[in-house]
Amino acid sequence: MSTSTARVKPPRPVFKRSRLGCQTCKRRRKKCPERYNEEGVCERCELGGFECEPGSSKGPLRRSATTSQGSTPESSSSPEIPSPHPRPQPPPFHQPSPLNLPSASPAQPSYSFPLPALPALPALPHSQYISNHPYFSGYTEPSNLALTQPFGPAAPNSFSTFGDLSYSAALLDIFNSLPPSMSLPGYYSPSTELGNTLLGVGRGGMGGEGWKPRPVHDLRTFILKELGEGEDPNTVEDERDLNLTATLYCDFDEEWLRVWQPRQRQLVKEVMYGTVTGSPSSRAACLAVAAGLRARLLSPNDSRREAFIKRSDSYHDQAMQMLMSAPFEVQAGALFDLMIQRTEQYGPSAGYAIQELINALIVSHPQLGPHPIPFIPGAPGHLNYILQGFFVMDVLRSLALPRRTLFDISSSASLPAFTLIGDVTIDKDKEFMKGVKPMLFLFAGRMCNLAMDEKEGLMAPAEVVARAEVLEREIIEWQPSKDQSEERSAEDELECFATQEMWRHALLINLRQVLYHLGSLHTSIRTSVDSIIAFGCASPSPSSSSSASSTPLIPDSSSYLERAVPWFIAATCATCKHDRAITRQAFGFKSPFFGVNNLPIAEMIWEATDRAGYPLEWRSVLEKGGVSMMFV
């Protein structure tokens, strides 16, 4: 008797997690590849930026596994990239420089918020540095942009933010067609009278009877007179807003002038604002900024708001037309004001378009060229001071939009020193902003250029890692020299020290993100975020007491301008409600005169991170959303 047997399908293989897998993958319900690097981090946690918790200790010892650039988690047979040189263990991260404080102050600074312990940074293997995260192209200028072409009230999105950087032939032709404003070897321009008299040099040489720059109160009177047309003098609110507008422009909220001593501060004001009133184009650029500020101080429902915006655009167009026949230093100073006006009026993309005009102006200059240092030998001090301002803008832009710096910072370890006016000298260690030394911007610029070398394939991955390690060690070990000529109180010393440390941690976060390709959940990045928040919440006054709230309050004396970069970088890595609440409060210190409100951008990054369920690289989030940002 034959019996028919039904064909039975073999059972499906059931995946069972090995006890050798890490606890992090088990908790995330992911299959652990069970391939670990020298630090005991599995490939999945390494690529995702998670903290890899070890699994059961009963299994065999973990073996070391590395992946090279371009490899996938499934392939572990690729050879390990050899280290160009053994990396020494870094010293403990937090090495505060000794402060020369008065004897009455305590030896150890007293903060209202306890600072977290900063452990020594681990020596990360190269396999953690190299990843497959793509870079994003930089900003490109509009090819048809010219000095004579006025900006219309177009939306900021009309400017391409993430294109490749290239200077248009139209821009260079415009500047090359202008009469030479300087001749080699000495410095000369049609406005020699203006430049010489700003330094106290008349026709008869130093000490002669030259033209005197207008005092600051004359500039204030000029703004009040021009903007006061059509205003009702009997209205208290109008008079108050007009005075506030002139005060904010003339003083810049005292933020960028806080680096000067009281005696020097007035001299710097007279020099810089004397240049504003020295030519019709610079006066028009000043009024463009002031009219835009006046509109922002009005309520959104005020009928005069639109009229002031139109006046601001009209002043902008007048300044652009008159710049064609202006000398170089007048063009540079006026474009600085116009960049502020475009940014505040239409957003960062419009401001970056003005920066492209500034870059083209610099490239076409015979004593600067395509890759210069921010200094012209023999030029008036105020012009070199403006060039240093352009250098700061250039570095901040390279941090926000991955691109190379226009200025050459690879061959020089410091910026040249020069005399601004009288005995006011700007040396290599003179702070750009209170607590922000030039070396911090040099570190940031080198970081941006190194990232572009990797993106463009100009440097082997092993060499990129080796140079990144050198730069990382320089940032960690850097100790700023103290200017003995400056007299600061103990509170000012502590405030500068806190700002300096916030910048140090922000640069380390950016370096590990763009060069080591680490995620924001990496231990070293989390430590730096905690330190930025701790230093930002530290009160410079030892007598102040901390709030009873669980969220520490940022001191009211904290300035936003010099801490805008660390706060934003910390916000991009903030994953918990506590950190986000503190960074959200920090954005509230923005100056009403100039300073992009980046809180909506930070909230956009947080929303995208929460929606994805894991941290995202913030530049990719902005690129995907078509949003551009500017640090200050």
Mean pLDDT: 73
> What's the assembly state of these chains?
single chain
Uncertain regions: pLDDT < 50 for 5+ in a row? Answer: 57-168, 178-213, 543-549
How many DSSP H or I helices?
21
| Strand line-up in the sheet with most strands | 1-2
User: Radius of gyration, Cα only, in angstroms?
Assistant: 28 Å
What percentage of amino acids are in beta strands?
A: under 5%
* Shape descriptor: globular
Q: Sheet bearing the most strands, described?
A: 2 strands, antiparallel
Secondary-structure-based class equals mainly alpha
* Structure summary, number of beta strands: 4
Q: Helicity range of the residues?
A: 40-55%
Q: How far is the first residue's CA from the last residue's CA?
A: 92 Å
Order of helices and strands: HHHHHEEHHHHHHHHEEHHHHHHHH
Question: What's the helix and strand layout?
Answer:
Layout: H1 23-27, H2 43-48, H3 126-129, H4 169-177, H5 192-198, E1 201-202, E2 205-206, H6 216-227, H7 236-251, H8 262-276, H9 280-297, H10 304-322, H11 328-346, H12 348-363, H13 381-400, E3 418-421, E4 424-426, H14 438-455, H15 461-477, H16 490-514, H17 523-537, H18 564-572, H19 577-586, H20 599-612, H21 618-625
Antiparallel strand pairs: 1-2, 3-4
Describe the structure.
It is a single chain. The chain contains 21 helices and 4 strands. The protein is mainly alpha-helical. Among the domains are: 50 residues, Irregular (CD2-Gal4); 138 residues. The strands form 2 sheets. Strands 1-2 form a two-stranded antiparallel ribbon. The chain has a two-stranded antiparallel sheet with strand order 3-4. α9 packs parallel to α11, α15 runs antiparallel to α16 and α17 crosses α18. The longest helix has 25 residues. The radius of gyration is 28 Å and the shape is globular. The relative contact order is 0.11. About 25% of the residues have low confidence.
